[in-house]
Amino acid sequence: MAELKKCRICFTEEQQEEMIAPCGCKGSIKYVHKDCLTSWVTSSRKIRCALCSRTYEGVYLKQILPIWKWLMKHPRVILGITLECTITLMFMPSLKLLLSEVRLVNSFLKRACHYFVIGFISATTLAMNVDLFRSVSKYYRYTNLRIKMDLSRFQKRSIAPIEPIN
Questions:
Q1: Which residues constitute the domain of residue 136?
Q2: What is the C-alpha separation between 59 and 140, in angstroms, rounded?
Q3: 74 pLDDT tier (thresholds 50, 70, 90)
Q4: 80 and 139 together in one domain
Q5: Do 132 and 73 reside in the same domain of the chain?
Q6: Which among 77, 84, 162, 166 counts the fewest CB atoms within 10 Å?
Q7: pLDDT at 141
Q8: In angstroms, what CA-CA distances link 82 with 2, 89, 120, 121?
């Protein structure tokens, strides 16, 4: 009689979804659904079988780097943040000096200068926030847990031998 495949995670029998044998377990507990294994590894963050202690074949877990290590690999982001801070620190004192000098001139020029300064500061702040958001979103995408399954490593072991019926 043919061996009945049953997923050891969700305890259902083989349906339309392919069953794989990712570790060294034997017998009725060796098969799991691909989706069940993916969700199990995602939630537990472990790539070793709890029963046989072997690493799941073909399952790779991306490691999370601290933000400073990630920044060391991306010097362009560090350069951008440093440049934005430097420009801001150099621009603010010159704006203060400009506004103090405008007091001596007529009110129209004073108002125009105030609007220009407020608009420039707003545009600079917006550009810095957009750039910071882009940098942080790259880090977030990088650290998001990714599981890669190499299904070619499962093919030889996932097909259960069919015994002839006597």
A1: 67-143
A2: 22
A3: confident
A4: yes
A5: yes
A6: 166
A7: 62
A8: 66, 11, 19, 17
CA angle 138, 88, 100 (to 5 degrees): 155
Contact of 102 with 113, CB cutoff 8 Å = yes
Pair (136, 150) in one structural domain: no
Q: Are residues 32 and 74 in the same domain?
A: no
Structure token digits, residue 130: 């957009």
Total domains present in the chain: 2
Q: Which amino acid is at 110?
A: K
Report angle CA 160, 165, 166 to the nearest 5 degrees: 145
- 32 and 17 share a domain? yes
CATH number (domain holding residue 20): 3.30.40.10
The strand ranges marked E within the chain are: 19-20, 32-33, 59-61, 147-149
Q: CA-to-CA distance for 88 and 82, rounded, in angstroms?
A: 10
Q: What is the pLDDT of residues 102-120, one digit of tens each?
A: 666 667 777 777 788 778 8
User: 33-64: buried (b, 16+ CB within 10 Å) or exposed (e) per residue?
Assistant: bbebbeebbeeeeebebeeeeeebbbbebeee
The pLDDT of residue 80 is above 50: yes
Residues 6+ apart with CB under 8 A from 48: 54, 55, 56
